[in-house]
Amino acid sequence: MSPLSIALLSLAMSTDAFAAAVGKGMALEHPHWREALRTGVIFGAIEGTTPLIGWALGLAAADYVKAWDHWIAFVLLLGLGGHMVLNGLRPSESQAADKPARHGFWVLALTGLATSMDAMVVGAGLAILDVPILPVAFAIGCTTLVAVTLGVMAGRVFGRAAGGRAEIVGGLVLAGIGTAILFEHLSAG
Asked: In whole angstroms, what is the distance from residue 29 CA to residue 7 CA?
């Protein structure tokens, strides 16, 4: 693969993670760079690892993973998004006081996994083409790290604009990403 092809593939693989990071950033109480970078590292590590897993699964499991990746992403993102919406709808005296300063590791890991299912299928596809996977996986992970870090900080700006209902908006963004993934795969099939 050419460096340009790797760069374009890396950007394509990080778009869902970027959108999810904007939603995560909106749900936080004034996220700082340290939290944005932490989120980026978690997403980047997962997004960089899933093509390796797909590569390892190879041809035998590629069809199975491809058949279910959109459903897995849809269920995870819809569940996480619905949870955020329900939290945002709960009445409270001060909505801003209810916003967390950071997301838990497992919430971020599940969101990162949900947005990286397509990278697993890409890894399996690259195994078929006999493309060296390590540079591609590294590029995808690094691109996702940067995209997610910037996405969380963008969510901070959008969160201020959304005010007390930012968690609802962020949850709807996650649910929308999951629905879009499902729709894209079902309409292509």
From this structure: 33
